[in-house]
Every structure is written in structure tokens, then in C-alpha cells.
Specification:
The protein has about 220 residues and is mainly beta. It has three helices and 14 strands.
């Protein structure tokens, strides 16, 4: 979908300490032999968060990951100045060994007024039809302790997730176009997930994308692929 532009971030974690590039939950993220490791210490608490400040509208995010006992990780994009969604969440990609998801948080389940009802089991059934088009899901079969490469493209109101260079899941939803995104990062559920070779570029829509969209994702935008 995207034509990449300026390189905004590159981190191969070839150091001993995380340093100032990332802010993170203490004790839950560290560097081990050139790999960025995240783990949830207390499953009763909010999954640990790491993030890096990076303001953009459209971007391509590329990284390698490996599951080591974690049940799920999310790649979360925020606007710290946005007060109309929970914690300023704008959009996300979530991945477990069995499921890939894309979500519009800005207009979906994190939007204030919707978020509170989504958290309540009694009112969630009322909200589910309203947010169905703000997410997409795809069943996966990923192996533990195997390196995969994930690429996320966010351009305008569209988002694509690719694995090892293969486009797998597409979402078109209004909140994805929110500008700016001011920071992004990872959240981790369970133990452990390893990350490496993170790169982020600014991006614009490639001129050939409309034709490729039809061939890659013929299903209706916003539906499960």
C-alpha cells in the first residue's frame, strides 16, 4: 500500500541498556544479547507497556518478533493529546500465536462513551454491532521460538499487516486517519516475547495501491478477512 519516505527510527538493540529511546514499564522490558525482551510479571495488572515518541500521519513499521510463552502482544499507536479515546489510543495491531487483529481505537472500542460500555459485560452486547466495522481478524498458526517479520502500513484510513513479506489483513476505518500519532510501542501479555530490528519510515499511498487492493483484499473493507 505504502511508498516509503524518510527513515524515522531504526533500532537493532545492539547494546546492554534500553536507554532513552523507549519509555517502558520497569522490570518488564530489557535487552538480552541484542534482543528487546518484554514480559508480563503480574497477569492481574495492565499488560506492561513500552513506547517511543514519534510523530507521524502515515508510516510503515517493520520489526522481527519471536514468541517465548507470551499469549499476545499489541503494537499500539497513540495521540497523547487526544482526549476522546481511552489513554489517547488511536489504532493497534494485535498478535497471538493463533490470531491477528487490526483495530481502530479512535472510533472503536477505546472511544469514550463506547469504552465504558465495552468494559461492562452487561452492556458489551449492545456495543458489539456498533464497533464491528472498526476491526478485522484473521486466524493464525505461528510457532514458538521462531523468528517472524511483521510489517504494518498505516496510510490515511487504511492499515495492512504483513508477515514475512506477505500481506495478510486489511482494515479501512475512519479513525486510522487521525493526525497526528505522537507515539507508538508494544504491550505484552504473558512471558516472553522478543523483538529485534525495528524500523519506521514515513509513508504515502503508492499510486498502484487501488488496483492491488482489489486483488489482495476483495472482501468488504472493515470485515474479517
Amino acid at each position: 500500500m505504502a511508498h516509503v519516505g524518510k527513515l524515522l527510527l531504526a533500532d537493532d538493540f545492539s547494546r546492554d541498556e534500553i536507554g532513552s529511546t523507549w519509555s517502558y514499564s520497569k522490570g518488564s522490558f530489557w535487552i538480552d544479547d541484542g534482543v528487546f525482551v518484554g514480559a508480563q510479571r503480574d497477569p492481574a495488572k495492565h499488560p506492561p507497556v513500552c513506547r517511543t515518541p514519534l510523530e507521524f500521519r502515515n508510516a510503515v513499521i517493520d520489526f522481527r518478533f519471536q514468541f517465548h510463552g507470551t499469549s499476545r502482544f499489541n503494537v499500539v499507536f497513540n495521540d497523547r493529546n487526544w482526549s476522546q479515546s481511552h489513554a489517547g489510543h488511536i489504532c493497534r495491531a494485535g498478535l497471538s500465536p493463533r490470531l491477528l487483529t487490526l483495530g481502530d481505537d479512535c472510533e472503536g472500542v477505546m472511544k469514550l462513551g463506547i469504552f465504558e460500555k465495552w468494559q461492562d459485560p452487561q452492556t458489551r452486547p449492545q456495543i458489539e454491532p456498533l464497533v464491528r466495522d472498526q476491526s478485522a481478524k484473521l486466524a493464525m498458526q505461528l510457532e514458538p521460538e521462531h523468528w517472524y517479520r511483521m510489517t504494518l502500513e498505516i496510510v490515511g484510513d487504511e492499515m495492512i499487516a504483513s508477515l514475512d513479506g506477505k500481506p495478510l489483513l486489511h482494515l479501512k476505518s475512519a479513525g486510522l486517519a487521525h493526525t497526528p500519532k505522537t507515539d507508538w510501542g508494544f504491550t505484552v501479555q504473558g512471558r516472553e516475547v522478543h523483538f529485534d530490528d525495528v524500523s519506521v519510515w514515513s509513508a504515502e499511498q503508492d499510486s498502484g495501491w487501488p488496483a492491488r487492493r482489489e486483488s489482495l483484499f476483495p472482501a468488504s473493507a472493515g470485515s474479517s478477512q
